[in-house]
Design a protein that fits this description.
It contains twelve helices and 16 strands. The strands form three sheets. A ten-stranded mixed beta sheet has the order 2-1-13-7-6-5-3-4-15-16, sandwiched between helices. Strands 9-8-10-11 form a four-stranded parallel beta sheet, with helices on both faces. A two-stranded antiparallel ribbon has the order 12-14.
Length: 364
C-alpha cells in the first residue's frame, strides 16, 4: 500500500508541474526567420492553448516507442490532447531502420482523414521530393528529429517545427567533459556510443561532441554504432570489455548509458569508468540521482510534444503561431536536477504508451 501511495504522489507531482507550466507559460526559444540558416534566436514566454475550438483529428507519427525518450514525448502529446479536447492518433514505426513502415503510416493518416500530421521522421532526408505524395494536402508539423527544410517538397508540406539542434546536445556533453579535462590536464580515454549510424540525430550529436572536445585532453579510443535497443548497446559494451580497451569514460546515448551502469557493476568497473549521456531518459535520471551518471543534457521531451500539438491546433484555428521553436537545453548533474525541468522532460513512471485520445478517453 505504501508503494502504491508513493507512486500516486509521484504521478501527481509530475501532473502538478505540467499544469503549472501550462498555466503560467514556459520559456522557449523562437527562431526567425523560420527554417533559415541565418536565424535570430530569442527566448520568449510561451503560453499553450487551454482548449480547441473543435475536436480536431491529429495524427502523430513517431520513429518508435521503444525507450523512455519517445514515451515521454507520447506522454506530453497525450496530456495536451486531453486538455484541448481533440482527437489524437499515434503511430510508431518500430525503429529508425523502418522507413517503409513509416511512409505507410503517413498514408494511414490520410485514410483516417487527419486534419494535421505531426511527424517525427526516421531520417532527415528520407522524404525529400515525396512528402506531399504521402500526406496529400494535410499540413505537416515536424517534431523532435530534423527534417530537410531545404527540399522544396518538404518546405511546402511542413508548416512548422519543434526541436533542438542535436549538434547542441552533443556539444553540451563535450563541453562538460572538456571543462573537466582541459588541454594539459592529462589525457583521458573514452568510448563513444552515439546510437544508430544512419538514422536519428546521431551524426550531428557526434559532430557537436567532437567540436567541443577539440582543445581538450579527451581522447576517443573507439566509436561503436548500433540502434537504440538495450540488447544491441549491451553487446557493444561487452565487446569493449572483451577487447580489454582502456577507458576512463563511456559516453553515448541514453540507452548506452543505462546499460553501462549494470555492465560496469557486473565487471567490477563501476568506480573505475565514468558515464556521460547525450540525452535524458528515466534510467539516466535514476543514474544521475544515484551519482552513477555524471552528466546529461535534456531537450525537454514532454514540453516539445506539447508545443508540436499546440502548433498544429493554432494553425488549424488561424491563431498566432511561432513556426520554428525549441526548448532551452538544460545541463543536468547529480547536484543539479530541478524538479520543473524533469517534469518538462519525463513521463511519470506509471505512464504507458497511448495510441489514441478520443473524447478525453485514452485508448491503449
Amino acid at each position: 500500500m505504501l508503494i502504491i501511495m508513493n507512486k500516486i504522489r509521484i504521478f501527481s507531482f509530475f501532473l502538478l508541474f505540467f499544469a503549472i507550466q501550462s498555466a503560467h507559460g514556459a520559456e522557449i526559444i523562437t527562431h526567425e526567420p523560420p527554417f533559415n540558416d541565418n536565424q535570430h534566436s530569442q527566448v520568449i514566454k510561451y503560453r499553450p492553448l487551454k482548449n480547441a475550438a473543435k475536436a480536431w483529428k491529429i495524427c502523430a507519427v513517431y520513429p518508435h516507442l521503444k525507450d523512455s525518450y519517445w514515451i515521454s514525448i507520447n506522454y506530453g502529446m497525450v496530456e495536451h490532447a486531453k486538455e484541448l479536447g481533440i482527437q489524437l492518433k499515434v503511430l510508431e514505426a518500430g525503429g529508425y531502420p523502418n522507413l517503409d513502415k513509416q511512409q505507410t503510416q503517413l498514408q494511414d493518416c490520410q485514410q483516417w482523414e487527419a486534419d494535421a500530421i505531426i511527424l517525427g521522421t526516421v531520417d532527415r532526408i528520407a522524404y525529400n521530393g515525396i512528402l506531399s505524395r504521402l500526406t496529400g494536402n494535410i499540413p505537416v508539423f515536424a517534431t523532435i528529429n530534423d527534417i530537410d527544410m531545404h527540399d522544396k517538397d518538404i518546405s511546402q508540406s511542413v508548416y512548422a517545427r519543434v526541436g533542438v539542434d542535436w549538434y547542441d546536445m552533443g556539444k553540451a556533453a563535450g563541453q562538460f567533459l572538456a571543462e573537466r579535462h582541459p588541454k594539459g590536464s592529462g589525457v583521458v580515454d573514452i568510448a563513444w556510443l552515439p546510437g544508430p549510424s544512419q538514422r536519428g540525430g546521431t551524426k550531428p550529436v557526434t559532430q557537436g561532441f567532437r567540436d567541443a572536445i577539440k582543445n581538450s585532453d579527451i581522447n576517443i579510443v573507439t566509436t561503436l554504432w548500433a540502434d537504440n535497443s538495450k540488447e544491441l548497446q549491451r553487446n557493444l559494451i561487452q565487446q569493449l570489455f572483451a577487447d580489454e580497451t582502456h577507458l576512463d569514460y563511456i559516453v553515448g546515448g541514453a540507452v548506452a548509458a543505462e546499460v553501462a551502469i549494470s555492465e560496469l557493476r557486473a565487471n567490477d568497473k563501476l568506480n573505475e569508468i565514468k558515464i556521460v549521456s547525450t540525452y535524458l531518459s528515466h534510467g539516466v535520471y535514476r543514474g544521475l540521482r544515484r551519482g552513477r551518471i555524471l552528466f546529461a543534457p535534456t531537450d525537454k521531451m514532454a514540453q516539445q510534444a506539447m508545443l508540436s500539438l499546440d502548433q498544429a491546433v493554432r494553425y488549424l484555428e488561424s491563431k498566432p503561431l511561432k513556426r520554428d521553436i525549441s526548448p532551452k537545453i538544460e545541463w543536468l548533474t547529480p547536484k543539479h536536477l530541478p524538479s520543473t525541468v524533469i517534469a518538462d522532460s519525463l513521463s511519470p513512471a506509471e505512464f504507458r504508451p497511448a495510441f489514441s485520445v478520443y473524447n478525453h478517453q485514452v485508448q491503449r
